[in-house]
Design a protein that fits this description.
With 480 residues, the chain is of the alpha/beta class. The chain has helices at 14-25, 40-45, 47-58, 62-68, 80-104, 157-160, 177-188, 208-220, 300-303, 339-354, 383-389, 402-406, 436-448, 453-458; strands at 5-10, 30-33, 108-110, 114-118, 121-124, 129-137, 141-143, 155-156, 169-173, 192-197, 224-227, 231-236, 270-274, 279-282, 284-287, 291-293, 326-328, 368-370, 375-380, 392-399, 413-420, 426-433, 478-479. The chain folds into three domains: 5-142 and 293-354, 3-Layer(bba) Sandwich (FAD/NAD(P)-binding domain), CATH 3.50.50.60; 145-289, FAD/NAD(P)-binding domain; 368-479, FAD/NAD-linked reductase, C-terminal dimerisation domain (Enolase-like, domain 1, 2-Layer Sandwich). The radius of gyration is 24 Å and the shape is globular. Bound molecules: NADPH dihydro-nicotinamide-adenine-dinucleotide phosphate.
């Protein structure tokens, strides 16, 4: 059978673009369809704009710190309307870079929605059809709102980057990556942030001690964090259920009438009833309650592609679905939903299918960082997971870092290693500190190589740094 193309990629995010380019580099005839903007979640509405907002928000504390170091520096105010156009100009630039990379690789770009008509045929929204020997689904995910009355009034993370003005107050719902990062960013930009998390402690799945320190630091910086709390219902303030004034029950909210920057679907203050009994109005509500794989309307089930409970595409270690010509990578497969993982999956796909080198993706010991303030960097097992697996030693130190301590701040950082008693290997490394994301990237190389605690100890400290504590912890704080 002859095909129009060797590969049709659906989705122009980090994973899809990398796979398309690698396949094209082998001489394959490749096309890619993207219904939204080229670059996908990471570039357009995720990692990149988020990190730029992290940088923007981090300047808030700098004048006070600079004064402590002898600088004559006044406090400043953040101007979203000055920052926003620059942010979007940068996203436009990056989108252009992605587009040019594809074009330069000879890949045909279709700026429209695509679906699968059969195992080898992709149909575009305008009715065009292409046959392809292989189809790669890399459609990513979408931010979901919880199912509760009034939820349509709330924003999701995509909307944050598009706000016309900053709200005076916001309720962030959720306790995962996005909720915690957004709470810190918005607080840093001068918004009054309240955060509701339904569980006992934020950042479920991370090391307990690290989670605890991040939560403390967030509260100390002014995030009004309520664990064990979530929304029961919400409505436009002033409607039947709502209060007409400020909050009751001690939760920080925006008084009606003082709202400077209406947000959400209807654009006015939002009344929220919480499980802790409080009723509060906020200028905006942000749902950061998880993301779902983007599989609806692709025609996958009809072809026999297996979907999981959350709608994710079920694939094998080579990212192949139950239909041999169809592969899937990235968030749509809901394995580890991180950009660099999607890129690795795209590269492994191309090696397997176009270079004749069957390559399974290595999902073991993937480092990650939560860009809260301070950041949380993590690789390997948490203390809790490691202890359940085997006898361990825990090396940990928490201290006030030199830079902020000199300026009189009480911030603490945490350096923690989880070590196997049997093999002496470092099973997990957890860092809560400014720039922990940068530190964990390097520590992850050692952990991935199977470094032992003694390998860490043999490494000479770089002094004076925070990270030197990683190689100077002599006695375990816990064993067992
Ligand atoms: P997460 O799965 O990390 O967090 C979702 C949060 O919402 C959890 O705290 C969850 O609670 C809570 N939640 C879920 N449903 C409800 C509900 N109905 N009512 C109230 N709370 C609810 O998802 P995110 O959206 O934060 O992030 C998605 C993924 O994107 C991450 O897992 C990560 O892979 C990736 N990401 C990575 C980043 C990075 O690398 N820095 C940054 C941002 C995203 P519970 O814990 O109880 O389930």
């Amino acid at each position: 059978m002859t095909f129009d193309l060797d590969l049709f990629v659906i989705g122009g995010g980090s994973g899809g673009v990398r796979a398309a380019r690698m396949a094209a580099a082998t001489g394959a005839r490749v096309a890619l369809a993207e219904a939204s903007r080229m670059g996908g979640t990471c570039v357009i509405r995720g990692c990149v704009p988020k990190k730029l907002m992290v940088f923007a928000s981090s300047f808030r504390e700098m004048p006070a710190e600079a004064r402590a170091y002898g600088w004559d520096m006044p406090d400043g105010a953040f101007d979203w309307t000055a920052f926003r156009p620059k942010l979007h100009a940068e996203l436009d630039r990056l989108e252009g870079v992605y587009r040019r990379l594809l074009e330069g690789s000879g890949i045909a770009i279709h700026d429209q929605r695509a679906r699968l008509a059969d195992a080898h045929t992709v149909e575009l929204a305008d009715g065009q059809r292409f046959t392809a020997k292989h189809v790669l689904v890399a459609t990513g995910g979408w931010a979901e709102r919880p199912d509760l009355p009034g939820a349509e009034l709330g924003m999701v993370s995509d909307d944050i980057f598009l706000m016309d003005k900053l709200p005076r107050s916001i309720l962030v719902v959720g306790g995962g990556f996005i909720a915690c990062e957004m709470a810190c960013i918005l607080q840093g930009l001068g918004v009054e942030v309240t955060q509701y998390y339904r569980g006992a402690q934020i950042l479920r799945g991370f090391d307990d001690e690290a989670r605890g320190l991040v939560a403390e630091a967030m509260k100390a910086r002014g995030v009004n964090l309520h664990c064990g709390t979530t929304i029961v219902e919400m409505a436009e303030a002033g409607a039947d259920h709502s209060l007409t004034g400020t909050e009751t029950g001690g939760v920080m909210g925006a008084p009606v009438g003082e709202t400077r920057a209406p947000q959400g679907k209807r654009g006015g203050p939002i009344w929220v009833k919480a499980t802790n009994g409080t009723e509060t109005t906020f200028d905006a509500v942000l749902f950061a309650t998880g993301r779902r794989p983007n599989t609806a309307g692709l025609g996958l089930e009809d072809l026999g592609v297996q979907l999981g409970r959350r709608g994710e595409i079920v694939v094998d270690a080579y990212s192949q679905t139950a239909v041999p010509s169809i592969y899937a990578i990235g968030d749509v497969t809901d394995r580890i939903n991180l950009t660099p993982v999607a890129i690795r999956e795209g590269m492994a796909f191309s090696r397997t299918v176009f270079e004749g080198l069957p390559t399974a993706v290595d999902h073991d010991l993937v480092p990650s960082a939560v860009f809260t303030q301070p950041e949380l960097g993590s690789v390997g097992l948490t203390e809790e997971a490691a202890r359940a697996q085997e006898p361990i030693e825990v090396y940990a130190t928490s201290f006030r870092p030199m830079r902020s301590a000199f300026a009189g701040a009480s911030d603490r950082v945490l350096m923690k290693l989880i070590v196997s008693q049997a093999t002496r290997k470092v099973l997990g490394c957890h860092i809560v500190a400014p720039d922990a994301g940068e530190m964990i990237q390097l520590a992850a190389i050692a952990v991935k190589m199977g470094a032992t605690k003694e390998d860490f100890d043999r490494t000479v400290a770089v002094h004076p740094t925070m990270a030197e504590e990683m190689v100077t912890m002599r006695q375990p704080v816990r064993k067992g």
